[in-house]
Amino acid sequence: MARYKTGQSVRYKPVGGPDSQTSETVGVITDVLTEPDSQADRNVQASPDSPRYEVMEAAHNQWFYIQNSNTGKVTTVYEANILGLS
Which pLDDT belongs to residue 73? Predict the structure, then answer.
């Protein structure tokens, strides 16, 4: 079962897992998948026990998608990469 909901602001590591050396960032959840579907233009194998989150990052009073702030492409984040609410 998903721990987080659409609209919540969270702290997360976009790649490498929660213990990686990747910088922590903050974003807003824009979608939660709990079954296989398409998210961020990719097929995602989500389930109730392994939900996937689409997160939009806030920076400089603008919103952009976390995969690439220059291109605006959307990505998904594993629940394990979310460190908690911000």
Answer: 53
